[in-house]
Amino acid sequence: MNYLKLRIHTGTQTGVVLNTFLVWCMYMKLELQELKIPTGWYISYNQFYNIAPSKAAVEAIDTVFNEDILQFKNEHRNRVIDLGWYPEGDYDLGSYGLVVYEGDFQGKLLCEIDSKNKDEIVSEINRLLLEIAEGYL
After folding, report:
1. pTM for this prediction
2. Between the CA of residue 68 and those of 1, 90, 114, what are the distances in Å?
């Protein structure tokens, strides 16, 4: 089971919404997001859960919507794919940030995608994993 680090907010309507969300979180088990990973990829870390971003989720769950969500490396193709939520813990201004670099983070930026839509990000990750594994990017 995956454990969550939750921030407790109190007061006014926001507190009511977040407290309701926290009760919901206590009864659910978060599953990692399913991805189609071709051979050749190494997963450095994975905290990409199958939960859509919402104001309550982003503000309450520190471990899900942060800058270090998911990272893949492909040594053969010399590529790194990184996913984070920027700015961390901020739903109103935040979104997923997906990047692909040649080599490492000091290498050439090959692709950059920003979106609040989890399904769009999942599609892009799957596309990028395959394109890079097949030598197209």
Report:
1. 0.80
2. 20, 14, 15
